[in-house]
Amino acid sequence: MPKSVAPTVGLDVGSSMIKVVELSSGRDGVKLRALGMVPTPEGVMENNIILDPHLLGGVIKKLLKDSGITSKTVISSVSGETALVVRVIEVPKMTEEELKETMRWEVERHVPFAANDVVMDFQPIPRLDADPNDQNMEVLLVVAQQDMVDKHVETIFATGLKPKAIDVEPLSISRALVELGPDPWGKKTVAIVNVGSNNTEIAIYKNGVIAFPRTIPLAGKNITRSIMSQLGVDERKAEDLKKQHGEIDLEKLAQPVIPQGEDFLDFASQQPEEEEGAMPFIFSVPEEEPEKPSPLFQQADERPIELETSNGVEEPNAALPAPVPVGDPEENAVQQALASVIVELKDEIKRSLDYFKGRPTGGEIDEILLCGGSSKLKNLDKYFEREFNIPTHIASPLAYVRPTAKNFSMEYLEDVAPQFAVAIGLAARDMIIPPSMPSPLVSGKRGKKK
User: Fold this and answer.
1) Using one digit for the tens of pLDDT, what is the confidence trace for 102-115?
2) CATH superfamily for domain 182-257+329-396
3) Domain extents for the chain?
4) What is the pLDDT of residues 287-303, one digit of tens each?
5) Backbone φ and ψ of 275, nearest 5°
6) Among candidates 45, 33, 40, which has minimal Cα distance to 17?
């Protein structure tokens, strides 16, 4: 049962939308007191690094006021792949002091950016099914660029809020969708797929504890760009078309999707590997004199073939009509553009699931939960369930909280709920007993490397 905590703000600043919630908890559970969201101003962020903290801070401050949020304590998150690394790594078992020294060197191995000016934290991961005789241990490693964290904190101060912690999405999202539930430590393995605007965050949790996180740079914006290219429209029109026709045609996606710009099968890519001494496939023939057509077809271009009808009058054979596309052409084009991205996303998710299954500490996945703004694409859950053969559901972070905000209907809350999983998980950080993992970037004091 969640412990009593004063109202707390969860702030999720995304590349497309800013989401805020205010939660409180007591004997009657966790309450959603207020929530709100607005578009992220254009040009205020680049690669998830805030460029103008004061402008963004002013937008968030207005959002808080308009949403009726009064609490000043905030827990926020940072995300992305260019300035943040979240990894579960395996190292030999060692003491905490030895681990501190080891992690300093592990940073060099795992970050794709300069490791001389970063904020770093780590935490050993407890496993309920761990072998006590195992010589290795798993550690959650989080590394963020110092500039990213500094700009984030500057933005929060510009809002007038008091930052209590900075978290990462894979940990916050599990609180909203797993740990607030009635059986957070149940013996199951859950993959949460957060389909956002620029990135898709996939995180696999085993017995309620994170086991594998990955960021895939493929999400809603890619669908929008695909529609823009397919129909030759601008971004605003493409977004409108995505909302209007954004549906996955399960019947069409039962067949292989031909990449855009190609209308043929690439037989060369389908040839099996040549065995030594075996004759490779040859699609050409030796030069020979072409076979002469029969006299009947020699005259086909000179006069039509005549047929005898039921009334005895000979009429020319009418040409077969051209096939007519089924459905609305605009809708078909949008769905084709959408399908090319969704199939690629499905392949990337499958690689992650297969990698996890093949690890010694991995195993089968019991359930997939979808969240994020782009998870609302019609039939996305059904498509993934069919392709992965794993039960898949659109998750609602409102399942384990009680909305008390009076200015929103339940229909509206249920519609936007998948977009607020991160924000609700952030605000619920101190309401969960026991915490599965501390916030890795609470103050940046541990493992700070310059």
Assistant:
1) 888 888 888 888 77
2) ATPase, nucleotide binding domain (3.30.420.40)
3) 182-257+329-396
4) 444 444 444 334 444 44
5) -90, 150
6) 40
